[in-house]
Records
---
Amino acid sequence: MTERRGRRPTRNDAAADQPRLVAYDLLRAVSGEGAYANLVLPGLITDGGLGQRDAALATELGYGTLRASGTIDEILTACLDRPLASVDAPVRDLLRLGAYQALRTRIPAHAAVATSVDLARATGNGRAAGFINAVLRRVVTSSWDDWTDRLGADRCALGRLALRTAHPEWIAVAFADALGGDLAETELALAADDVRPQTHLVGWPGRIGRDELLAVSGGEPGPYSPYAVRLSAGDPGGLAAVRDHRAGVQDEGSQLCALALAHAPLTGRDERWLDLCAGPGGKAALLAAVAAQRGATVHANELHPHRAELVRQATAAWNVEVSVGDARSMPGIEGGYDRVLVDAPCTGLGALRRRPEARWRRTPDDVAPLAALQGELLAAALRLVRPGGVVAYVACSPHLAETRDVVAGRELIDARAGFEGVDTLGGGPTVQLWPHRQGTDAMFCALLHGGERA
């Protein structure tokens, strides 16, 4: 069985199978080349000439299969008489795609099997067609819930929940820890993390009003950020307001964390702001837009040159100084910065809905080195901010080692005051947002007084 990525079906098959071909090519890029789904898929859709409806199907099949792949692999293993790893990689992806369709969509089981066999032939994997047919026929003998109940019978309650919601168990444990061990709410959080999210837009202040962005996008207003619009469908890249940088794609939770820093009370001047780890530039752009309206300037620093270039592009409409370097050794300015954002590199467990392959790439071993780095970056921010200023520590993760533990022992401002109108914020002083509570990524935000010893 040989892999021939990029081969297209005959003319008779193209119309029916093009969305599945795009989904398959996405799986091959992610599993075979280590690609990121969100970066690869738009180009595949364009190259495939998909209309809106077919693009939506390809996205659902591709992203859904990636999100569920860990649990799907356990189901496939139960249907094989040899290790799944011994199956050729392209055939594994065909099996995953077929199993996802049969178990997690409304596509009838017989259609999921038949289209997978057709897809095998269309992609140069015809020698495996009989094998794929036999395995998928075993898969469709049970439902998703029946499979996960059976495979999870000997696991703890949290392990069964992780299997059913397609999460590694260690991530389910991290969610549960952040939610105080509440298993019922953990189930809600994991379930919300297992569905395709809405796209959130931000209208940059001073460049487009939210009413205009609503009118041109057909979305609905975000419930919390005054600049947010939520889209249930459609390609945001096709909007003129996004193409000409009057608006951008940014999760409402990210907007709220940037705005919490921008509006946090401080003493003294309010002229110089710093985004310490600015790539790819979304929060820097929002800070720059707000700062411009208040006569302040923003300095954005980024470690990686290619990401710094993304920051320059995102902030081109404002007078933003962009530097490249390690934030931990960044030189200060006379008098210090008034506001400093530490949007720390993290596991990204808070955005697993948007990065479907990430949950199966991350491991528990990733957490400790990142937590150490996060602590060092926070210390750098506290060195760079002036006495009387304010630092925001932000992480796109609910993992306690990356959130609560990083700021433990520090003098904290009650961040909830910067999230006015946002419900279910807990007891403070830090804020943890959640998909199941606020419909945002699971963003963490802590505010700290400037002048504290780093």
---
Amino acid sequence: MKHILASERGFTLLEVLVAFSIFTVSVGILMQIFSKGTHAAMLGDEYTQAIIIAQSRLATVAIEGDGPDVGEYSGAENDYRWTTTIRPYDTAADLETNYRIAEREIEVVVNWTRRGKSHSVKLNTLKLIPLT
């Protein structure tokens, strides 16, 4: 009969189960981290697209000749809905009477819904319009 030396022994069933349990918990945690990272990247991409749409709307208003009329305009691009609000800007200095310049506050809000949650981005700017 052959004697088994202590160095030639294999792993016990308990050691294998403990190692397997540690491995599965580690893989589960890593998968959860990966999933949250992917979700965060997708949400970042959505915010980037919304900001591009908002900047585009601000640029459209900025390049219009004498300026757009005061009011609210809305529309949609893909899954994003935008609203542009143009209103007179109240300041202490009276630019309209002294310098013949009108001030307009322009606000663009872009809304979208993903996975049942509503998200939005809002950009503001001021525009000076020479009065004729």
---
Amino acid sequence: MKVKVSQKGLLIPKKLLAGATEADVRKKNGQIVVVPIRKNDPIFRLGKHPVKMDVTDAAENHDRYLYGE
């Protein structure tokens, strides 16, 4: 499929991005790679139900708390 490149860039047909809410666009080895990101991607569920603890440095030292390192 060929698409026309305008001053703003190019338009990717929605049917090629079925179910995606976002897309990750990268340039790799001279090629442009578009990876659709779907709603059910588990990464979007991280942080939905945080656990409250008496720890103030869990973000910086999460390995220590998770794995005892």
---
Amino acid sequence: MIDIDHFKKFNDNYGHAVGDDALCIVAETLVKSVRPNDLVVRYGGEEFCVLLPETDLQSGTGAGERLRKAMHSTELCDSSGKPIPGITISAGLAERRAGENADDMLKRADQALYMAKTQGRDRLETST
């Protein structure tokens, strides 16, 4: 689970049109940064879910860190063309357990995301 950090403040400061641009940039960056068989979906307002099939927790952590760092190199400008400080994301990662349904796995990933946000944002936390 991935959430754009301080997105409401971003929209309030730069407007919803620039916020929409930020969502597009995040989506494009995520899609470009994963393998062809991985799936990136928007999961709500400013949240995304990235499914990494056949990936264990250690490899998923590496992938999540690559995604988080890829955001640091994104460029976005306000409506006047002035660069806006970088977009950051917080992420929560969960590996599917044997016999676990998808909803329970997503809940654990969401709990890890919440931990990343409470621990300072722009970070990845895992659910074990």
